[in-house]
Amino acid sequence: MALNRRSRRFSNTVHSLLSEGRSRAADFDLVRLGAHGALLAGAAWMISSIPTSTVPNGPSPEIFGFVTLTEASYLVALAGTVGGVIGLHARQRTSYGRLGTAGFFGAFTGTSLLLVGLTISFVSGSLSGHALLDPMLGVGLWVSLLGYLLMGIATLRLRVLPQWCGALLIVSLPIAIALGDFGGGAVLGLLWLAVGYALLSQHDVS
Predict the structure, then answer these.
(1) How many other CB atoms are found less than 10 A from the CB of residue 69?
(2) Sorting pLDDT into bands at 50, 70 and 90, what band is 39?
(3) Which of 92, 154, 165, 187 is the 20 to 30 A CA-CA neighbour of 64?
(4) What does the alpha-carbon distance between residue 98 and residue 179 come to, in Å, rounded to a whole number?
């Protein structure tokens, strides 16, 4: 009987360790994918800022016949941003508690709403033709602001990633909104390039 109990205890321990190992491996995969998404977002945000920074009122060149370079860059940037948010969450989710979890859901939901809303408006060619788009984009922006604020605070508290990473999550979006077409995209580009670097520089990820 004692031998059977020891055998079951050993089996349960091995199973628990294997399950934990698979879970951590999945998290590391998400972190790595999220880091590449963040780098993609950073590059796309930087590209989106080029036409609007050099010629704020000028036309952006079309690349697919129905969407401009700036519009395509926005969509790629937002999609990469969603990936970056997931990577940040996967890296910190075991420790940053309710505050970080709330921040993740806010940032993820808000950015996803912006991505869906802008996709509809760019494909249709008109933002005014859809009565729900303005509220969707407005809600997405405010939820994103709150989400990145909470994620930034949680990142500062947790100290898993560099402190500057949390600070950038807090201040970058408000600064980008204030700058608008005169450098806002470049600010977001620098943010997500930095986040991608911070995620990839973790020893247990790279």
Answers:
(1) 17
(2) very high
(3) 187
(4) 32
Q: Which residue has the tokens 């620098």?
A: 190
Global pTM exceeds 0.85: no
Beta bridge partners of 62: 68
> What is the structure's pLDDT at 125?
66
3-class secondary-structure state, position 68: strand
Tokens 């500057």 map to which residue?
164
Q: Which two tokens stand for residue 116?
A: 């869906």
Give residues with Cβ within 8 angstroms of 44, minimum separation 6. Answer: 73, 74, 76, 77, 80, 189
| Contacts of residue 58, Cβ cutoff 8 Å, sequence gap at least 6 | 51
Q: Which of 7, 89, 61, 46 is nearest to 194 (CA)?
A: 46
What contacts 203, CB < 8 A, 6 or more positions away?
none
